[in-house]
């Protein structure tokens, strides 16, 4: 059981050995969360939620039904559901989904992800391309990674650019949806 405090928000989280960062919150995820501000009308998606750290943190700051947690691992979803109850926010939307295939929800103001980057780029490519379509205009995609060039190029081609925050060994990308068309072209 992990006990952590993020910006004064206390979380208790069950984990499993096969899930990402099971012993302690990942430093990159914490760096990313330190940059994100939530507003009461946000609709947030924790994409690739693992045991639910990001989404449950958001749900402690927002009405829980405005928070969605997706993962393709049934064990992750099971642990996230248990963690949502443990943290008093069982009304979050926890969905077993390979990328976006398990939900039709759109209109997100923030999509937050620490994508797997020790594999090929097919997963973050899907997250970025399909995430763009699920964001509302003015919405932001937040991603953290240790690799910069590929993400710079991909986010520029889809969003028209991204702000990059260097945080220790990590790069936190903040890409705003300014258009309905890829590349930031008016549409």
What does this structure look like?
- This protein has helices at residues 27-35, 53-61, 74-86, 122-134, 149-159; strands at 2-6, 9-13, 44-47, 67-71, 93-96, 108-113, 135-145, 163-167, 170-176.
- Strand 6 (108-113), helix 4 and strand 7 (135-145) form a beta-alpha-beta unit.
- The protein is of the alpha/beta class.
Order of helices and strands: EEHEHEHEEHEHEE
**Assembly context of the chains:** single chain
Strand tally, please? Answer: 9
Mean pLDDT: 94
- The percent range for strand residues is 25-35%
How much is the radius of gyration in Å?
A: 15 Å
Overview in brief:
The chain is α/β, with parallel strands linked by helices and 187 residues long. It has five helices and nine strands.
List keywords for this structure.
alpha/beta; two-stranded antiparallel ribbon; 187 residues; 5 helices
